[in-house]
């Protein structure tokens, strides 16, 4: 038979307190990540409009390669898995490129968003 906790009713109160303290930190970090991502997307949106105005390609693989190398080095010194850091950055960049393509299409068709 397996046992599982659905709540914290039968758990040592000190453990409950420690869990709440750690989760509070996690919530603060998640909020910071969301705010930082929002700022990053504001900047990349501006890059997207600049590129569209000057008919520059949405993606810049050379810039991406430099960012990945830099982020992997930062991750290593921060004791974060560099492969995870690379995956995370690639995930964000893919979304940015999608936005840039959309901005460029809207510019061509004279639509604004
Ligand atoms: C934001 C840019 O556009 C794309 C998105 C990038 C990013 O999100 O960091 C980097 C390179 C480009 O593929 C850029 O060229 O700087």
In brief:
This protein is mostly helical. The chain has three helices and no strands.
Task: Describe what this molecule looks like in 3D.
This protein is an all-alpha fold and 113 residues long. It has a single domain, classed as Chorismate mutase (Chorismate Mutase Domain, subunit A, Up-down Bundle). It contains three helices and no strands. The longest helix is centred in the first third of the chain and has 41 residues. It starts with 12 loop residues before the first helix and ends in a 5-residue tail after the last helix. The structure holds the ligand C=C(O[C@@H]1C=C(C(=O)O)C=C[C@H]1O)C(=O)O. The ligand C=C(O[C@@H]1C=C(C(=O)O)C=C[C@H]1O)C(=O)O binds next to helix 1, helix 2 and helix 3.
> Mean pLDDT, as a whole number?
93
Tertiary shape: elongated
Q: What hetero molecules are in the model? A: ligand ISJ
Over all CA atoms, what is the radius of gyration?
A: 21 Å
Main beta-sheet strand count, sense and barrel state: none
CATH architecture term: Up-down Bundle
**Proportion in helices:** over 70%
Total count of helical runs of at least 4 residues? 3
Structural class: mainly alpha
Oligomer: single chain
What string, H for helix and E for strand, traces the elements in order? HHH
Write down the CATH class.
Answer: Mainly Alpha
Range of strand content: under 5%
Domain Chorismate mutase: 13-104
Organism: Streptomyces galilaeus
Protein name: Chorismate mutase
InterPro entries: Chorismate_II_sf (IPR036263), Chorismate_mutase-related (IPR051331), CM_bact (IPR010951), CM_dom_sf (IPR036979), CM_II_prokaryot (IPR002701)
